[in-house]
Amino acid sequence: MSVAFRRESDDEHKEPKFELPLPPGPNLVTARGLALIEAKVAELEAIDAAPLPDAEREQHLRVLRYWRTRQATAQPAPPPPEDEVAFGSRVSFALNGQTKRIDIVGDDEADPNEGRIAFSAPLARALIGGYAGEKVDFGGETEAIEILSTETIPD
Predict the structure, then answer these.
(1) What b-and-e string marks burial along 85-114, b requiring 16 or more CB atoms within 10 Å of the CB?
(2) End-to-end distance of the chain based on CA atoms, in angstroms?
(3) I need a labelling partner for 137 at 20 to 30 A (CA). Which of 23, 48, 94, 124 fits?
(4) DSSP designation for 22
(5) Whole-model pTM?
(6) In total, how many domains does the chain have?
(7) ∠ CA 86-39-33 to the nearest 5 degrees?
(8) Domain housing 112
């Protein structure tokens, strides 16, 4: 029989399952971010004890490996300087005539709908290193953002 007609199993024709991608760069976290990661790992480990169908179990273990890696690589960031925008800062700024406030946090804690953006996001990168009263470039525009105030994210 020709090798072309041989079929070992259905598994060899499935798409390979890759690990969940990790964000590039350091895994900086706030105290809140670290607590969220630890809670997620605990939640997934509780599920891990329950019996799951094979396909669900494979996906569950993949997610659990992701969160365990994030927990193991978490680097609590030092508090930001009082007057400079940095990781862990709450920033009020004016952009396009609108005043906005955001918290600059880690990748896993980010939730733009809640005003928390990752330090790796373009907006955060534009603001980091700035001071209250300073105008910074953003989106290809010179002095597009005016930083109104900055403070440490309250606990």
Answers:
(1) bbbbbbbebeeeeeeeebbbbbbbbbeeee
(2) 69
(3) 23
(4) P
(5) 0.82
(6) 2
(7) 5
(8) 89-152
